[in-house]
Amino acid sequence: MGIILKSVEREELEELWKMQVKAFSGLLEKYQDYDMSPAAEELDKIVARYLQPWTTYYFIMAGDDRVGAIRIVDKKDGSRKRISPIWIMEEYRNKGYAQEAMIEAERIYGEHNWCLDTILQEKGNLHLYEKLGYHQTGRIDKINDRMDIVYYEKD
To answer: Which of 35, 41, 110, 150 has the least CB density, counted as fewest CB within 10 Å?
Structure first.
């Protein structure tokens, strides 16, 4: 397969945002979580995150195709590095790209001291993260009657 992580440039943020909205729209429809879904975010929120010195957005590239994206938060202060969010466009899902992207992020940033969160009801996500060595912290936040957020760490 083989993916690369390509840093998102400032002038590419609108494209990144459009991809994010499209990629998460099915989950927004399913769970109706308008306050926190990446599909409901405005472009200015992406821009604000992009400008944070500890945030790097990457396109997940398979050849010339942007198959998804990942945001890495690394404050370089000993706190956990964070993946928030990662997504694969619908037409590229179930091909191993998310797993490859996370392995590549660990190669770049180090394989220890990570965290992330995801929707508890999305069993495929849980399987992926656990397969990569993440474990649930025990914290679960109820968002609404349809959805809970579960927290993961990797030491």
So the answer is: 35
DSSP β-bridge partners for residue 71: 57
Cα 54 to Cα 51: distance, rounded to the nearest angstrom: 9
Cα separation, 13 vs 42, whole angstroms: 11
Give the pLDDT score at 1: 63
Buried b (16+ CB within 10 A) or exposed e, 110-136: eeeebbbbbbbeeeebbebbeebebee
- Tracing tokens 């649930």 back to the chain, one arrives at 136
Does pLDDT of 111 surpass 80? yes
What average pLDDT does range 68-82 have in this prediction?
A: 97
Q: What are phi and psi of 22, to 5 degrees?
A: -65, -45
> What is d(CA 93, CA 76) in angstroms, rounded to the nearest whole number?
31
